[in-house]
Amino acid sequence: MNYVFDTATSPSVAIHGSDDRFAVRRIFCVGRNYAAHAREMGHDPDREVPFYFTKPNDAVVDSGASIPYPSKTNNFHFEAELVVAIGKKCEDVKIEDALQHVYGYAVGNDLTRRDLQSAAKSKGRPWDVGKAFDHSAPCAEIHPINQVLDIENSRIWLTVNGDIKQDSNINKLIWSVSEVITNLSTLFTLMPGDLIYTGTPEGVGPIVKGDVIRVGIDGLTELETKIV
Ligand code: MN
After folding, report:
1. What is the pLDDT of residues 75-115, one digit of tens each?
2. How many domains does the chain have?
3. DSSP state of 38
4. How far is the CA of 29 from the centre of ligand 1 (A)?
5. How much distance in Å is there from the Cα of 200 to the middle of ligand 1?
6. Residue 1: inside a domain, yes or no?
7. 3 state DSSP class of 42
8. Would you give the DSSP letter of residue 81?
9. Cα 97 to ligand 1 centroid, rounded to whole Å
10. How many angstroms is it from 210 CA to the middle of ligand 1?
11. Domain range holding 163?
12. What is the 6 CA–ligand 1 centroid distance (Å)?
């Protein structure tokens, strides 16, 4: 078989302590998974069933990268998030078995064109232009799960040019990592290479050209991104 174009790309994320890379298959993102963030976006954080959106796999960007301020927005936002890397196929997984399918964890930033997302929301349109644009999924090194202690009680924070903007804890997730995997696996057959951005705590806000964003979660490698 010959193709007229070679579209083969291999988006990937670094792995802590290894020269190997984690090939990225799909990127799922959870909407509104911290109560205080749901409130700041004008929603009532009841335990409604989690909902999802996706980004293309080639939206991933390594830590340390400079990324261009995106087109068509005047309100470009950061969102600090825990990223779960799936390492085994799973479908309709039981909650007690969910973590067996996790390869590891990383720090991510769900970059968002908030003005485009808000316009889409108000019209009941898809979020893609607000969420799934180029370079929209910075992700630091993945730490294999057996090297991570108590991720579910770890501080998550974000700074812009050294000023703290988000400061919360993974234990404030409305839907835990196991619950997200269990629910998502009823909708999609999760496969090795899938990433799940688990949602952001309160404090999201705008960034501009020249800003340096650092995102951290206790026990994981920090994520640094510069906007140029
Ligand atoms: Mn998000």
Report:
1. 999 999 999 999 999 999 999 999 999 999 999 999 999 99
2. 1
3. H
4. 6
5. 5
6. no
7. coil
8. E
9. 25
10. 22
11. 12-227
12. 32
